[in-house]
Amino acid sequence: MRAAVMTAYNTPLVVHEVPAPTTGPGEVLVRVMASGVNPLDTKIRRGEAAHAKMAPPAILGIEMAGVVEAVGGQVDRFQVGDEVFGMTGGVGGVQGSLAELAAVDARLVAHKPAALSMAQSAAIPLGFITSWEGLVDRAGVHAGHQVLIHGGAGGVGYLAVQLAVARGAQVFATGSPRSQDVIRHIGATAVDYTASTVDEYVNQHTGGDGFDVVVDNVGGATLDASFTAVKRYTGHVVSALGWGSHSLAPLSFRGATYSGVFTLMPLLTGHGREHHGQIVAEAAVLAESGRLVPRMHSTTFTLDDVETAYATVESGSATGRVVVLPNG
């Protein structure tokens, strides 16, 4: 099969023929129709993501959508011809989705939503799983909550807003001036972080009480700001980028709580993979009802121009999620 291979860190991916994988027990062989490209993928390629544990030579690509071509032993949820999607590899030494075929752990995938294309489906798993683990598993978001999501027009934030809205929360999302309409379009109150301070938008939207749940998808100073924007006593901050050194004093003085989200853990450890499959199944339900649609970049790419896809993500010029079509 053809695949894009990372032969060394910080060098272009090389597209060539490699042996096709075979299915083992508990696996399905998937013809990859679409592979999502995330900022994390580009960091792995540059050798800046040691936590992902992916060393060259390797096939990258964390999320995918495709068609089942073979079913291994001990798999009863899928059959040949099923369309599936999920967050299936590209870290922890597991083959990723920048290839024509991938043997994936069947626990990690769910049936693809018919309402979405292959490209759209491949743009969902990582961001939605991250959002679900933060909003649902950690913070228990529900109707009546006021939720603040930082980076509401970003790859994760855009899905997080839709998830929180679907669960009945009143949602606010920060973004740049040019992203305000995008945020409003998916049902959130847009907050221009360049035009108001944390204290100003907390006062404006919560009467100074703070938000019940604050989701940080940016890290750094934005996580620090989250600690001062959360509600006293019952508020909860969640972050997928809490990797720096931060003072917990602002959070402690509000009597609030914090949770970190590390979405890669089931792929790295093998534990909790069933839950990831369950989460993407929940994404499919929301997508089928029209309540979950990813924001897509205007151009799709193939294996032959995978470097352009990576450069688009790295440059920050993407207008939505970037997807590669390995069989395109």
Strand content: 15-25%
Helical content, roughly?
25-40%
Question: What number of structural domains do the residues give?
Answer: 2
Number of strands: 16
At CATH level 2, the architecture of the largest domain is Alpha-Beta Complex
Q: What is the CATH topology assignment of the largest domain? A: Quinone Oxidoreductase, Chain A, domain 1
Distance between the amino and carboxyl termini: 14 Å
Oligomer: single chain
CATH level-4 homologous superfamily of the largest domain: Medium-chain alcohol dehydrogenases, catalytic domain
* Element pattern in H and E: EEEHEEEEEHHEHEHEHEHEHEHHEHE
Write down the CATH class of the largest domain: Alpha Beta
> Low-confidence spans: pLDDT under 50, at least 5 residues?
none
SS class: alpha/beta
Would you tell me the overall average pLDDT? 97
Descriptive account of the structure:
The protein has 328 residues and is an alpha/beta fold. The protein has two domains: 2-123 and 264-325, Quinone Oxidoreductase, Chain A, domain 1 (Alpha-Beta Complex); 127-260, Rossmann fold, CATH 3.40.50. Helix content is 30%, strand content 23%. The chain contains eleven helices and 16 strands. Helix 3 (125-138) packs across helix 4 and helix 3 crosses helix 10 (273-288). The two termini are 14 Å apart.
